[in-house]
Amino acid sequence: MLGVECDMKKILIDIDDTIVEGGYLDVLNEYLGTSYTYNDVEDYFVESLLPEGKLDDYLDYFYKTINVYDYVKIKENAIEVIKKLNEKYEILICSAYIDKRVPDKCGVITHNKHNFLMENLPFLEPKNFIFTSRKDLVECDIKIDDKVSNLKGTGKLKLLVDGYHNQKFSEKELRQRGIKRVKNWDEIEQILL
Q: How far is CA 150 from CA 4, 37, 38, 78, 135, in A?
């Protein structure tokens, strides 16, 4: 079995806005008592919707009292497709956790991500869970992520999961970077299986 694993191609898969969606905006709306949608977000971070002077208090609330994975929704067919991919590829779940604004508070997010993965993807090996903000350091054959900058580094095939925050990248620009945009997990399945 060990020899087979070594011969399998490695797929690096992100969590937030790749396997799951929502969560961050839901938490922000709960905190503010608002009903913002992603159409209101003009930046990568939903915190851009916060009123002036509220960021520190919000980040304290977010990291000390909230588990964002209690708010997320799993993207349609994500788990089913990952399960099928796991039979043909070595799956590495690689997710960023460092918030540069409060690096001393964000360690709790690794605990929450780990528990979410154990509960929802129990067929994956926990030894293949990687929590880093330097995804470019992880060697793989295929990358699946929602953030263009996370698709740097190795990977012969780089799939960008469509999202509100990556619309500014044209198809021409993505092609020049060796990236293919995908709308959903059904497209990922068609490409990889």
A: 28, 24, 21, 19, 6
